[in-house]
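quick one, 247 residues, struct below
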Amino acid sequence: MSMLAKLSALFRGAAHETAQGVVDANALKILDQEIRDADNAQGKARDDLSGLVARRRMAETELKSFQDQIAKYEGSARTALDRGQNDLALEVAGRIAELETQIGERGPLIENMKGAEVRLRAAIATTDQKIETLRREIDIVKVNDSVQKAQSSVALQSAGAQSRIGSAADSLQRIKQRQAINEEKLIASQELEDKRTGADLDAKLKAAGILPGHSSANDVLARLQAREVKIVTPLIEAPVVVDKDRV
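---
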């Protein structure tokens, strides 16, 4: 295959894929238009059926007219024969023969028209049923298409929400880490300041009750107990004075 033939095949293939993509993307619109085209064709078929029925009825009316004329002319021919007017009777007989010929032609034609009507009515009814079935299937496809689009939209929105939630969680975690680092920096800075001023050592002495001017709970309790002993002891050691006059 020559290079030009290959390029031509490539272009035709790309054009086919592009056209197929356009068709697939607009499949529902195409189906709707095809249904409308089928409805229009059905309308034309009904019009044709109506015209056929009208022509068949006209032919039947004409046939009935021929039959009525034959009945009339037969009576006239017999009357002419009875009167001996053979030439007139022969002329009437010729007219009857013409009418019978026309009836012979009209009869099969009318039967063919009746057969065509039956076939056309059946075809129209079958096509109507197919169109209605196709229309219901298209409605189902449209509903499914809408549902799938809604599901896709929800899925995309959910994915976006999950992404935003994940991003927010990451931001929150970074804020917590930054706050923890700042807290540790403040603690370290305070510790350095305490070491510089000796406040950390004073805190240790204060906790141990060694720092002057500081009283621990144990010191307070011991002091209260000593005070209680001082109050009770003089009462026990005081001498008893006896009133001899009363004795």
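The chain has two domains: 11-154, 199-234.
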